[in-house]
């Protein structure tokens, strides 16, 4: 975290340490009083959620901490979102993205950040939650008709679930209708190849850029 100044590191630490009141007060001051870049504040949130995820994996944190982390992120997001784009709500949506955490995985922090970032960048996003079975993804693709499907997963077991989901798309005859991106945890090119996804994103900004590139939208 050497690239962070003192105030930024304090926000990351307070969020990761579950110091809710102090973290939210600092985020509010940074956004509403100091006029800090809301995207930078959300990036600090992402850094803190990475720490939370690692602590969960190591058994230091449990489900209540994940829930509280998600609630804090949601509150910061509510403060940041109106500051990012003025009057963006009425613009024509750039494309449709279906996103969910694959079956066997209950993590939603990273997925929520991606959903938020896609939304503020003008995409119509449908988030179908966590622990989503293959058939649910297939049904939602047929109903929502997305351009892109995002498969999220933090645990290593999610890699097999992602592969199962994409194989399910192939068997249902819908694989060629959508681009598929994966993200979360230790995703890399090896995992992308294993699952059969079109691409992987290491963070929410990359996920947005992938969608823009696929839909030929100027970044």
Distance between the termini: 27 Å
Q: What share of residues is helical?
A: 55-70%
CATH topology call of the largest domain:
Rossmann fold
CATH C-level class of the largest domain is: Alpha Beta
- Strand arrangement across the biggest beta sheet: 2-1-3-4-5
Number of strands: 5
Structural class: alpha/beta
Architecture per CATH nomenclature, i.e. the level-2 architecture of the largest domain: 3-Layer(aba) Sandwich
What's the main sheet like? Answer: 5 strands, parallel
Spell out the helices and strands N to C. HHHHEHEHEHEHEH
- Which percent range describes the beta-strand content? 5-15%
CATH H-tier superfamily of the largest domain = Cobalamin-binding domain
What Rg, in angstroms, do the CA atoms define? 17 Å
- Poorly predicted spans: 86-90
- Assembly type of the chains comes to single chain
Any overview of this molecule?
This protein is α/β, with parallel strands linked by helices and 219 residues long. It folds into 2 domains: 6-84, Methionine synthase domain (Methyltransferase, Methionine Synthase (B12-binding Domains), Chain A, domain 1), CATH 1.10.1240; 90-214, 3-Layer(aba) Sandwich (Rossmann fold). The protein is built from 9 helices and 5 strands; from the N terminus they run ααααβαβαβαβαβα. It has helices spanning 6-16, 20-33, 38-57, 63-84, 109-120, 134-144, 158-172, 189-195, 204-214, and strands spanning 96-101, 124-127, 148-152, 179-183, 199-201. Strand 3, helix 7 and strand 4 form a beta-alpha-beta unit. Helix 6 crosses helix 7.
């Amino acid at each position: 975290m050497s690239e962070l100044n003192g105030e930024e590191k304090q926000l990351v630490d307070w969020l990761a340490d579950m110091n809710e009141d102090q973290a939210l007060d600092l985020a509010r001051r940074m956004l509403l009083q100091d006029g800090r870049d809301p995207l930078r504040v959300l990036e600090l949130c992402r850094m803190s959620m990475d720490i939370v995820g690692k602590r969960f994996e190591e058994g230091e944190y449990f489900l209540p901490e994940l829930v509280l982390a998600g609630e804090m992120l949601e509150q910061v997001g509510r403060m940041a979102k109106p500051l990012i784009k003025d009057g963006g709500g009425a613009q024509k949506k750039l494309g449709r993205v279906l996103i969910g955490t694959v079956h066997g995985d209950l993590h939603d922090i990273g997925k929520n950040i991606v959903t938020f970032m896609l939304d503020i960048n003008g995409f119509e996003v449908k988030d179908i939650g966590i622990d989503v079975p293959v058939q649910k993804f297939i049904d939602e693709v047929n109903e929502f008709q997305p351009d892109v499907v995002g498969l999220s997963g933090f645990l290593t077991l999610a890699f097999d679930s992602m592969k199962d989901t994409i194989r399910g798309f192939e068997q249902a005859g819908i694989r060629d209708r959508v681009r598929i991106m994966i993200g979360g945890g230790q995703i890399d090119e090896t995992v992308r190849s294993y699952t059969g996804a079109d691409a992987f994103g290491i963070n929410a900004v990359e996920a947005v850029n992938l969608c823009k590139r696929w839909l030929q939208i100027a970044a």
